[in-house]
Automatic annotation (TrEMBL):
Family stated for the protein in its record: Belongs to the type-I restriction system S methylase family.
Signal peptide: none
Native source organism of the sequence: Weissella confusa
CDD domains: RMtype1_S_Apa101655I-TRD2-CR2_like (cd17244), RMtype1_S_Hpy180ORF7835P_TRD2-CR2_like (cd17283)
Protein name: Restriction endonuclease subunit S
Origin superkingdom: Bacteria
Keywords tagged on the record: DNA-binding, Endonuclease, Hydrolase, Nuclease, Restriction system
GO MF: DNA binding; endonuclease activity
UniProt keyword annotation of Membrane present: no
Protein's UniProt keywords contain DNA repair: no
Oligomer and partners: The methyltransferase is composed of M and S polypeptides.
Occurrences of domain Type I restriction modification DNA specificity (ranges): 22-173, 227-382
One BP annotation, GO: DNA restriction-modification system
Length: 390
């Protein structure tokens, strides 16, 4: 590793004093709640990434001083076992146990903040890792820490380095806070934005001509659509086929090679090809209906209502999922894929013990808004493009 010519590369112990703490035993005998007790500084008084030790939870009596070591504000403490090599600057006076090393007498050579960043750096920590040893836990001792090699710039240079680090830390903290705000907005607003855009697409407000009049319907529709659209029901444009669940207690039916979809396998508009459960040929022969072929649109209509996916391969599914086979050539499968999650919100949903549910009759009567096929294509593309930014 190369450093400027005016920097030194020296043994750490040449310029600092390093000693280990001590513990009076049994420690409980020396713990006190008296106001004139001595701060008993423990590793538990620190938090990860904390620079200063500003408070302690316990105190010891003055009788314990002969068995421990006093430390003072401005001294450095370094953990020497378990999570070894973590530096802290003292903002309180007190006493330390043998899990700490105290580092003092550094001020003539090291800027305090520079030394903190130095001890926190990979250059130093990697040396600690190589030196730490122990039969059950890694640990450091004062001689090992004194023997590490450290770079020593002139004090003025150290101060400039500290100023630069602290400026960068401030910027990083600012960026982190901004990022956290963005993440929160993303978490809270994106689902609402997605829902809003989807409703605009389904209702025809996106791509609507300014001269369009609302569609005049004789049926009770949930919202207005352009005059050149029309309303229909799902059963008028598609056949609906429900899945089945083989007897869960019959081991002959499970653990086979045929994928069987449950709602938990439907995620983010897709089906996991490696479904959580697979069924056997016996289940197919004795319990299941026809397989749903690759490319089939499926819709969940019980418990978690409104999940959609297009099958990536031939698959079976349970009775909480419907396969939808389009019978009307003026209807795009992709259009139903986009709008069904929105339209089920307007269905006559009933409460059940395990959650909300639709039945096949209500699913068949589900209202579907239909523009011409060219408009369907345009709106599907708008939706897919919007998803890329969500």
């Amino acid at each position: 590793m190369h450093f400027p010519a005016n920097w030194k590369w020296v043994r750490y112990g040449r310029y600092v004093s390093i000693v280990r703490g001590g513990s009076p035993r049994p420690i409980k005998k020396y713990i006190t709640e008296s106001s004139d007790g001595i701060n008993w500084i423990k590793i538990g008084d620190t938090d990860k990434g904390q620079k200063y030790i500003t408070h302690v939870r316990e105190k010891i009596t003055k009788d314990g001083l002969s068995k421990t070591r006093l430390v003072h504000k401005g001294d450095f403490l370094l953990t020497n076992s378990m999570s070894f090599g973590q530096p802290y600057i003292l903002a309180v006076d007190g006493a330390i146990h043998d899990g700490w090393l105290s580092i003092t007498d550094y001020q003539s050579v090291f800027n305090r903040d520079f030394m903190y960043y130095l001890l926190s750096s990979p250059v130093i920590f990697n040396q600690f890792g190589q030196l730490a040893s122990g039969s059950t836990v890694n640990n450091l001792n004062s001689d090992k820490v004194a023997g590490i090699m450290v770079p020593v710039p002139p004090l003025a240079e150290q101060e400039r380095i500290v100023d630069m680090i602290e400026m960068l830390e401030t910027q990083i903290n600012d960026y982190t806070r901004q990022y956290e705000k963005i993440q929160l907005l993303d978490k809270e607003l994106m689902p609402k934005l997605k829902e809003s855009i989807l409703h605009e697409i389904v209702s025809g407000n996106i791509n609507r001509d300014a001269t369009d009049e609302p569609f005049d319907s004789q049926i009770n529709t949930p919202f207005e659509v352009p005059a050149n659209w029309h309303w229909t029901t799902l059963s008028e444009i598609a056949e609906i086929s429900l899945g089945k669940t083989p007897d869960s207690k019959n081991t002959r039916y499970w653990g086979g090679e045929f994928p069987w979809i449950s709602i938990s396998d439907m995620q983010n508009g897709r089906v996991l090809e490696n479904t959580q459960k697979q069924i056997t040929q016996a289940a197919i022969d004795e319990k299941m209906g026809a397989i749903s072929p690759k490319g089939t649109l499926i819709l969940s209509f019980k418990l978690s209502i409104g999940k959609v996916a297009i099958l990536p391969t031939d698959m079976y599914h349970n009775e909480a999922i419907a396969s939808i086979f389009i019978t009307d050539s003026t209807v795009l499968k992709e259009w139903l894929y986009v709008i069904l999650p929105e339209m089920v919100k307007y269905a006559d949903v009933a409460g059940a013990v395990k959650g909300n549910t639709l039945n096949k009759k209500k699913l068949s009567n589900l209202l579907v808004p239909l523009p011409d096929i060219e408009t369907q294509q345009k709106l599907v593309q708008i939706w897919l493009s919007a998803l890329e930014y969500m």
